[in-house]
Amino acid sequence: MTEQTARKTPTLRNVAFDVERVRADFPILAKPMRGKPLVFLDSAASAQKPQAVLDAMTRLYSDDYANVHRAVYELSERATAAYEGARAKIARYVNAHDTREVIFVRGTTEAINLVAQAWGRNFLKSGDEVLITGLEHHSNIVPWQMLRDQIGIKLVVTPIDRQGELIMEEFERLLTPRTKLVAFPHVSNALGTVLPVAEICRMAHKVGALALVDGAQGAPHFRPDVQTLGCDFYAFSGHKLYGPTGTGVLWGRRELLDAMPPWQGGGDMIRSVTFEKTEYNDLPYKFEAGTPAIADAVGFGAAIDYLDALPWDAVEAHEAEVLAHGTAVLKDIPGVRLIGEARRKAGVLSFLIEGVHPHDVGTVLDTEGIAVRTGHHCAQPVMEFFGIPATARASLGLYTTLADMDALGSGVRKVKEFFRV
Amino acid sequence: MSDLRELYQEVILDHSRRPRNFGACPNCNRDAKGHNPLCGDRLTVHLDVEGDTIRDAHFEGQGCAISVASASLMTEMIKGKTVAEAKALFEQFHAMVTGGDAGGDDLDKLEVLAGVRDYPVRVKCATLAWHTLAAALDNGHMPVVTE
Questions:
Q1: How far is the C-alpha of A99 from the C-alpha of A84, rounded, in Å?
Q2: A374 to chain B: which residues are within 8 Å by CB?
Q3: Cβ atoms A262, A287 nearer than 8 A
Q4: Is B124 at the interface with chain A, CB within 8 A?
Q5: Residue B17 pLDDT grade (very low, low, confident, very high; cuts 50, 70, 90)
Q6: Which of A28, A289, A378, A388 is catalytic?
Q7: Which of B7, B38, B63 sits opposite A357 (nearest CB)?
Q8: Which residue of chain B has the CA closest to A417?
């Protein structure tokens, strides 16, 4: 990952990655499932949580909990310090220049909606184009369709090829001075394709467009550095990053966020309110109306601490090895077809077994203690492109082992045996 | 595997592999489409209804073993029944797969689908054909969606 190499804290760079030690940090991984060891292969939907995240949330609720940003008493100050501390950790983790560029949201979906409504609705006009890709999760399609219906922007889609890669020549052709925003995934959730983020951002900027990266699947596999990636907005979810649900971040360039008006009104986002007029608060609070998910944000901060201490080169190497092994295991089984075989992939094995519906695959694997996702993965246009209703998807996290891939292989063979295909 | 045999009984595997009354139905006078977006299943139910009687029933489409077998068994069971009888059967079937009281002895071979009650997410698979049938009976060319 050349895009990810510039890091500020290289202390653990050369330390080997010990997956068994990491697994011991995730209590749920030791729990049996249907009487078998759990083989959890659905981290792309939501990742499991290390004990440190659970402890941080319990500690906040047991020792330091009150509402934030409001009261003068000690507890509120402690809660505020913990909440803002989490923001600062995340800002450092993604290499933001300014902590105020980190907006807490409920997840990637809300982050993209925020950009569509607070930036798009105010800075785009009828006929302006938003360029997305054929790989999108619904959350990077629907907010732009809503904006199209509100103000008449045009939504343009760069096609993908049979490997599941973005067709760069098509992207270049569709990228014109009419393009005001390029919005695309760091990593495809349905296929695992890794996009050339820095290159796409450079090309977008050349025509004067901004670049929004849906980092929901990218941030868990590559430590994101928003400066090196060169994007203008980076949206990601805490719960896919081993943190609590209901957390996410929109990172955006300061000058853009400053110029954007708030999108939700309420408490915390104001400086003063009269019945005649409201003066809005500064960044980041003007985008955080209402009481935030305080303990969850603190848990997110603990997840970031956890990730920050990992040797990321070794993590990436480990995940690549597991993915390569899983790919080989599945390809070795007659009748198994991988969907998405991009040259650069991360974290996802989407597949079909000839003669067995993915839903039945999922149910049989479940009886073996293997948790995979089946369905369209909130990416129906991707399914339509491949002419299939659904896939089974095994997705990986940092705790996924080579043995998990072998278990998947045996599980798939059992599916075939059971359905006699 | 024994749990699996409860869900996927031999009759279900047989009907999913060789669905009965599968395909278009040129003489049918009613049809409805059903879609389960969760798993991408799509079925069309075709009926030949004369007066109050279902004279013929066919289906086509694609789906998981449970939904295809359920559709296949359904078409076998409703042939020759009155509209009211078919609707009553749907109610009994629904009660059975959702774990309620089956409340009737009319289910006959549909009972092989009783194992679905232990798999709540699969209930929609088992009932898709029946919801689609109800739409066709009420005719009805509006697609039904099970979510």
A1: 9
A2: 39
A3: yes
A4: no
A5: very high
A6: A378
A7: B63
A8: B1
Name all domains of chain B by residue range, CATH numbers in brackets: 2-139 (3.90.1010.10)
pLDDT in tens, A10-42: 444 456 899 999 999 999 999 999 899 999 999
Question: Among partner residues B3, B37, B125, which is closest to A359 by beta-carbon distance?
Answer: B125
Across the interface, whether the CB atoms of A360 and B66 are under 8 A apart is answered yes
Report the gap between the CA of A21 and the closest CA in chain B (Å): 32
pTM recorded for the entire structure = 0.92
A378 is an active site residue: yes
How far is the C-alpha of A142 from the C-alpha of A136, rounded, in Å?
A: 10
User: What are the residue ranges spanned by the domains of chain A?
Assistant: 2-50+311-419, 53-308
Q: Report whether pLDDT(A6) > 80.
A: no
Residue A173 burial class via C-beta count within 10 angstroms: exposed 0-12, middle 13-18, buried 19 and up: exposed
Which CATH class name applies to A2-50+311-419? alpha beta
Instruction: Say if the Cβ atoms of B39 and A374 lie within 8 Å.
Output: yes
| A394 alpha-carbon distance from chain centroid | 16
CA distance A182 to A374: 29
DSSP label at residue A333: S
In angstroms, the first-to-last Cα distance of chain A is: 40
Model confidence at A403: pLDDT above 60:
yes
- Asked if this assembly's ipTM is beyond 0.85, the reply is yes
Note the pLDDT of residue A9.
45
List alpha helices for A152-209, DSSP H: 168-174, 197-206
Q: What is the pLDDT of residue B59?
A: 97
Tell me the CATH class for A53-308: alpha beta
Q: Which of B130, B138, B142 is nearest to B59 (CA)?
A: B130
Q: How many CB atoms lie within 10 A of CB A5?
A: 12
